[in-house]
Amino acid sequence: MDKHQVSLSKCSRQRYNEWIFRDVPSDITIEVSGGTFALHKFPLVSRSGRIRKVVAEHRDADISRVELLNLPGGAEAFELAAKFCYGINFEITSANVAQLCCISDYLEMNEDFSQDNLGSRAEEYLESIVCKNLEMCVEVLQQCENLLPLADELKIVSRCIDAIASKACVEQIASSFSRLEYSSSGRLHMNKQAKCEGDWWIEDLSILRIDLYQRVITAMKCRGVRPESIGASVVNYAQKELTRKSSLWNPSSQTKVDLISTGHERLVVETIVNLLPVEKLAVPITFLFGLLRSAVMLDCTIACRLDLERRIGSQLDIATLDDLLIPSFRHAGDTLFDVDTVHRILVNFSQQDDSEDEMEDASVFESDSPHSPSQTALFKVAKLVDNYLAEIAPDANLKLSKFMVIAETLPTHARTIHDGLYRAIDIYLKAHQGLPDSDRKKLCKLIDFQKLSQEAGAHAAQNERLPLQAIVQVLYFEQIRLRNALCVSYGEEDHKPMHQSWRISSGALSAAMSPRDNYASLRRENRELKLELARLRMRLNDLEKEHVCMKRDMQKSHSRKFMSSFSRKIGKLSFFGHSSSRGSSSPSKNSHRTDSRVIERTCASTD
User: Fold this and answer.
1) Residue 39 phi/psi, 5° resolution?
2) CA atoms of 460 and 451, how far apart (whole Å)
3) Which residues are CB-contacts of 71 (< 8 A; sequence separation ≥ 6)?
4) pLDDT band, residue 443 (cuts 50/70/90)
């Protein structure tokens, strides 16, 4: 310990031997953290009120050693103050002005003890030079990180923050004016292609500590800085701060340094989320997903993660599949991807979609219009969800309930084509071959087989992984599609097929009809659907007998040959009444009378 003090003493002597009086022996020794100074009482007492009081209190004892505890700025700052007391000239800069303000307050070097003292000199430089330059304010703030809380009490921090916010706002306004130009018609407009030069301060702010950076951004928001500029600054700061250390990608290491680093990164993520602008598209959605992954990995607060999920849900229609593939960081038996988080994001999207429709004061029927912006977003998200389901379906640990809750989150009108959903379900059935028949039936109920394309329907008709009832539905709707195509080819446009009328009426309801008429129409269609379902059940037994033969035909013949042979077999079963009349599109009277009694009994039993 003695050797260490000797080395510090030697180091300090080397610093002040150049300017100290050599012909007069020192009569007081000042000990500070980081050095020892052998000085003279008179120059110090003439400028410093604190040292004057200490010497006055020990006048009888003739004090020769003074220890200054918790001196702001340490030995370096005290050396500058001592130089000022001795009348040695030195330059006040943005790198030392914060230290000079703090140590002058600590040593009481103000106007009460000497005119034009160090405190007034430092304050003048801070007000007239530093606060008029944004870069110098940022540098002073960085120096204040080691001078808190005294720098805050002296309002050095608040003055620099206000100056930064004001300068950034002025720079932004000047940049906006420089981008104004006249169009060919003589109207004044903003040139969006011109580079915005008012945001050059973004890079400067990235050197600040997170607590000071938060205060600067908050002040900028109050001053009215553009949300796009705030977002760009937040993205730049987060990318630099979170990629500076590698502990985020080293969860296995448990050293003390890594734990401290992880705590710092958690604080950065939570602070950045609080600083995000409320406006949509102020930050890229890829950045939001990156923050969400970091928040999950670092175990941030629930409020932080829910806020990110809400922000992502409000603009989910511009997300990509890679964005949704959030890894799961839980125990080994969990799924490969975080399905629960994605489900909450989808719920936020659905609720946001509903709230937007209510805010636009649109009726329930108009909000379902395929031309509305919300409907376009629904189509995009539905396609994204189907691709996501296909990606997570092969996971052996993915439970059926989690798969189904993702598929059922969006409303039924979100999918105009069910090919993507069918593909995802087929992949899940292939990866989970031990699934009970009841679960396979439950899963296939998600598919609307009327909305399958011709290629997907042909594949589903030969898919042995589907339950028998699902295959029957596919074949039934394929037969209807074939019959409709034949009707069109023979020019029977006036006889609209029943299946086509269903699909028209089951879409967006007409705005010209009243809600009561729409409800009555839906009830009529519901009864027709029940009748058709009863007919389908009556013929299910016959189709099951033919199923074995059809499978054999599928393996031997091409899909088109199979469809033609299947049409002949279905014709024998009389799906549509008498099949001999080519132009008829409804059952015969006799068959309708005989079927109606059975259908009424069947409907009664189903009800």
Assistant:
1) -125, -165
2) 12
3) 32, 33, 77, 78, 103, 106
4) very high
Among the listed residues 199, 142, 190, the one whose alpha carbon sits nearest the alpha carbon of residue 168: 199
Angle at Cα 516 formed by Cα 511 and Cα 521, nearest 5°?
A: 80
Record the pTM.
Answer: 0.71
Residue 594, pLDDT > 90, answer: no
Task: Characterize the bridge pairing of strands 28-32 and 35-39.
Answer: antiparallel
Is 278 in a helix, a strand, or coil? coil
Residue recorded with tokens 């309801």? 509
| Token pair in block for residue 533 | 């379902």
Give the Cα separation of 291 and 285 in Å (integer). 10
Q: Can you tell me the distance from the alpha carbon of 154 to that of 127, in angstroms, rounded to the nearest whole number?
A: 13
Considering only CA atoms, which of 124, 154, 126 is closest in space to residue 140?
126
Per-position DSSP letters for 122-166, written without gaps between them: HHHHHHHTGGG-HHHHHHHHHHHTTSTTHHHHTTHHHHHHHHHHH
The answer to whether the beta carbons of residues 506 and 525 sit under 8 Å apart is: yes
> Quick one: CA torsion of 180, 181, 187, 188, rounded to 10 degrees?
10
**Cα dist. 581→210, 533, 585, 594 in Å?**
81, 24, 9, 19
CA atoms lying within 13 Å on the CB side of residue 451: 19
- Nearest-Å Rg of the Cα atoms of the chain is 39
Helix (H) or strand (E) holding 32: strand 28-32
**CB-CB contact of 417 with 453 (8 Å):** yes
Of 357, 356, 328, nearest to 342 (Cα)? 328
Could you count the other beta carbons within 10 Å of the beta carbon of residue 180? 11
Cβ-Cβ contacts under 8 Å for 353 (sequence gap 6 or more): 374, 377, 378
**What span, in angstroms and rounded, lies between the C-alpha atoms of 199 and 195?**
10
In angstroms, the CA 209 to CA 215 distance is 10
pLDDT, tens digit, 9 for 90 and up, residues 402-420: 999 999 999 888 899 999 9
411-417 long-range Cβ contacts below 8 angstroms, 24+ apart: 411/350, 411/378, 412/448, 413/368, 413/375, 413/378, 413/507, 413/508, 414/378, 414/379, 414/381, 414/382, 415/382, 415/386, 415/448, 415/451, 416/379, 416/451, 417/451, 417/452, 417/453
Query: What pLDDT is recorded for position 258?
Result: 56
- Distance between CA atoms of residues 294 and 242, nearest Å: 9
Segment holding 190, helix H or strand E = strand 188-190
